[in-house]
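Hey L., structure's done. Input below.
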Amino acid sequence: MTGHGQKMDAVCKASRWKSSSSSSKKKRIPKKVLRFFPLIPRLKRMYMSSHTSEKMRWHGVTRKNDDTLRHPADGEAWKSFDRSFPDFAVDIRNVRLGLATDGFNPTGNMNLSYSIWPVIVVVYNLPPWMCMKKEFSMLTLLIPGRYSPGKCLDV
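Output:
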């Protein structure tokens, strides 16, 4: 089975639903909930604009290479990634993303153990004066729940 009616998770082979003590056919309760906001259509829209698509190539065309750390492209992690994946690094149009998350209690009542964990993706292809603007930070996931995902967040 696939889709919403799927009973077993394809990766971990465990049930997606909480076990019910009653045998009646009640509404099933999912073990975990995740709100997903598609990323690919938003990235495609960035390349549809001539102004933004030009800026998406900034890191490979107009960036100064003078050993001053101004942008993630100047860092050792970027250079190491380029050495590890040379096929990806060849095309400057390939999108490089950063991921950030932090949970918060939406009710403000710290006695309640409910939290929401937004997962935000930042496009690092853009120049430094654009990549950290809110217009280019994209909310991709919302993880609501009683407990934090902790180290179990695998994107």
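The first strand starts at residue 35 and ends at 36. The mean pLDDT is 81.

-- N.
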